[in-house]
Amino acid sequence: MKKIKVPLGARSYYILIKKGIISSSGRIIKKLNIANACFIVTNKKIKALYGSRLKKSLLNSGLDAMFHTVADSERSKSHLSWFRTTQSLARFDRGRGVCVISLGGGVVGDLGGFVAATYRRGTAFIQIPTTLLAQVDSSIGGKVAIDLDFAKNLVGAFHQPRVVLTDPHVLRTLSSRQISNGMAEVVKYAVIFDKRLFSYLEKNISRILKLDPVCMEYIIYRCSRLKAEVVGADEKEKKGYRSVLNFGHTIGHAIESASCYKQTLNHGEAISIGMLAAFDIATNLGMITDRSVSRLEGLLKKAGLPAKAKGINPLKVIAATGYDKKIINGRKRWIIPEGIGHTIICSNVPADIIKESVLKRVVQA
Ligand SMILES: NC(=O)c1ccc[n+]([C@@H]2O[C@H](COP(=O)([O-])OP(=O)(O)OC[C@H]3O[C@@H](n4cnc5c(N)ncnc54)[C@H](O)[C@@H]3O)[C@@H](O)[C@H]2O)c1
Ligand SMILES: [Zn+2]
Q: Which of 21, 131, 150, 349 would bridge with 105, disulfide CB 3.0–4.6 Å?
């Protein structure tokens, strides 16, 4: 088993990565001594795939368990869904000491986490991520949120899990598009921090897409470690370290928002285009060479990710960048690459350079 500590003083916790770990979850959770009963937030598909082995393990360890399923959609991160989930949790709890387990991708991770953050002003929370995106990114670091009708993740909290149980084996049932979705975040870590990881991805991309167990364990471990280090250094995104994880997300989120979250592009696909746009900006600023752009574009393409967004109004995307969270004192902050393996934060990128890069990457027709 691979074990990574997220170093947060008294709130430190471990990410445990092991094939089949769901079947040991009861024993691990029991040892934490945080609850007598587990409220599992998931959806029907994931419950059918992995619910029984989780429940069996919890019951075998003397923990009561109940499933709460939500629709398999980003719409489950709504205030109504938060309210219903919390009511169901309160009925199950009856004051006996309950923890919330999110079993699934980032949607149930964010919803379950926000329910746990707000119920009784903070209830113990456990992440069992089942998408690649959730395993390498959203399950780590305690950002939990629900959406407003017009903007994602605007209502949220920092609420760290007590443990993250990552089973690379569950990725076998994920669609190849969802693997590519998660690969966008994996590539993101490589570009920001780790040029060796980038070369590893270039060399092994076909094995990764076939879910080779050695490759999957390595990339999940490496990305989880990088995220754990960043969260440990800057939990609440106050010191600047954590904000580099938003690389590719300024234009990526703007693309998601301009397409009204219609899911023509998923998060990773939007981030793929956002990362390339950030590389275009860096090229225009004279900070990187065309060779870096073509390496990134080549890797993303092989990972099944797009280089351009089609059918989206680029002017809407440019306008939407103005609503991004990464605005400090009215100035937009851009995470710009200085090559592969290193980024910097810029707050004075000329508007025409941003416009040019969006027009290159987002086309209406
Ligand atoms: N909190 C954070 O730090 C953070 C970071 C990144 C993204 N997010 C959020 O995460 C969400 C996206 O998460 P996601 O990409 O995991 O999407 P998701 O949760 O919608 O899951 C994608 C799809 O995969 C299915 N699925 C999940 N695990 C499966 C498995 N093992 N086998 C078969 N199917 C499976 C789901 O049912 C769903 O249909 C967004 O809401 C985003 O805002 C949060
Ligand atoms: Zn992301």
A: 131
Q: Which of 221, 159, 232 is nearest to 194 (CA)?
A: 221
What does the pLDDT average to over 241-260? Answer: 91
For residue 129 and ligand 1, the question of a CB distance below 6 A is answered with no
pLDDT, tens digit, for every residue of 313-344?
999 999 888 744 555 555 678 999 999 999 99
Average pLDDT over residues 52-77: 97
Strand-pair partners of 41: 68, 102
Beta carbons of 102 and 113 less than 8 angstroms apart: yes
Closest CA to 27 of 59, 70, 4, 2: 59
- What is the 180 CA–ligand 1 centroid distance (Å)? 12
The preferred substitution site among 131, 147, 164, 174 for testing ligand 1, maximizing ligand atoms within 8 Å of CB, is 131
Strand partners, 68: 41
How much of the chain is helix, strand and coil, in % rounded to 5? Answer: 55, 20, 25
* Crossing angle of the two packed helices 213-233 and 176-193, in degrees rounded to 10: 50
- For residue 230 the two structure tokens come to 């960043």
Amino acid letter, residue 114: F
Q: Which helix (H) or strand (E) holds 229?
A: helix 213-233
Q: Helix (H, G, I), strand (E, B), or coil: what is residue 283?
A: helix
Active site residues: 121, 143, 185, 227, 237, 242, 246, 249, 253, 267
The length of the chain, given as a count of residues: 365
Between CA 163 and CA 170 the distance in angstroms is: 18
Closest CA to 139 of 89, 102, 173: 102
Mean pLDDT of the 53-62 span: 98
Instruction: Report which ligand 1 atom has the smallest distance to the Cα of 43.
Output: 37
- Ligand 1 atom with minimal separation from the 145 CA: 1
Percent of the chain with pLDDT over 70: 97
pTM listed for this prediction: 0.96
**What value does the CA radius of gyration of the chain take, rounded to a whole number of Å?**
20
Q: Do residues 256 and 250 lie in contact, with contact meaning Cβ atoms separated by under 8 Å?
A: no
Point out the ligand 1 atom lying closest to the alpha carbon of residue 153: 43
